[in-house]
Amino acid sequence: MPPVLPFPRKSSASHSDHTIQPRKVQFDWATTPLDWIPNQPFASHFINEINLILPAGELWFCRLYNQVLPLVTDPKLKQDVQAFIRQEAMHSRAHSSACAEYLNAHGISTERNLAVMDFLFERIFADAPLGIKLPKILDRQWMLFRLGIIAAVEHMTCVLGKYALSNTEWEKRGADATLLDLIRWHGAEEIEHRSVAFDLYEHLGGSYLSRYYLSALSFVAVFGIWADGAAHLMRQDPRLKPQRPSVWRPWLWKQWVANAKQGLLPDPVWLFLSELPYLSPWYDPRNAASTEQALAYLAQSPAARAVNG
CA 214, CA 197: separation in Å to the nearest integer? Predict the structure, then answer.
């Protein structure tokens, strides 16, 4: 008689209950103002930093997933991972265009922030970190460590995507339609593929216990880099420069909370609490957001409809 398992076996390694659909998009930044939320430079710069964080990271996701794809034995999960790669590549291109055609056109220097992200993903999280070739025996652990980082980050991006789709204050303030569509299209696809990174990590042997330290590391790193990069953008703005924005100065964090209370940014305490379900032994990414809400937005996203019909 077979042993009784504490949890039922899944018939598939995939939690995604639909076919993930890659989409092409194209954005025209010609008329987008620097304050894409009118008269709200702090919130506008804070969200704009996402355009600088994402391109290098998402291309790194794609490279690593292409490496491990031959190890995936579940057909549905392999299909999910392939679609994930195509979506993330499109995200990287879209945000790169925002850097080159939008921020730079407004005189914002992005080189420093992009260099930070390139160093993180091209050097620190490379196959040979900082150029150091790891012993063969550590290859699998280094792979799982990086897959675990991606899984934790993807939970964060799902949470942020849910926030973007639910935020109503941006429209009330007259937010620029193009940049708002970029944020919501991206957020919706993060919700659509929210299960993939977690499923892949588990499928290839990632442990429950490692989720704790990997999620803690990811949370601190992501939000520290986000705040630091946003401060660099603000220091280039004559309206905010006198405040000497810095991740180390209380002003930045007080303004983040103040803007969150106005509905312009996600509250940092809410973000922290939204990460906690990921630590549960019973975590199911399907419960983190609504696929139906995401698909409803993707069906009417101006950028997606313009290219995909």
Answer: 13
pLDDT at 2 over 90: no
CB contact at 8 A, 23 and 304: yes
Quote the pLDDT of residue 4. Answer: 34
Tell me how far apart the alpha carbons of residues 57 and 65 are, in angstroms, rounded to a whole number: 12
Contacts of 301 (CB under 8 A, 6+ apart): 25, 181, 184, 185, 188
Which two tokens mark 130?
């900082």
Tokens matching residue 232: 């660099």
The token pair at 190 is 């993060």
Question: What are the angstrom distances between the C-alpha of 300 and each of 33, 94, 121, 177, 294?
Answer: 23, 18, 33, 13, 10
Domains defined for the chain, CATH in brackets: 41-281+291-308 (1.10.620)
Cα 304 from Cα 21, distance rounded (Å)? 11
CA-based end-to-end distance of the chain:
55
Give dist(CA 155, CA 144) in Å, integer: 17
pLDDT of residue 1: 34
Contact 152, 278 (CB under 8 A): yes
Contact 161, 187 (CB under 8 A): yes
Question: Per-residue DSSP letters for 177-194?
Answer: HHHHHHHHHHHHHHHHTT
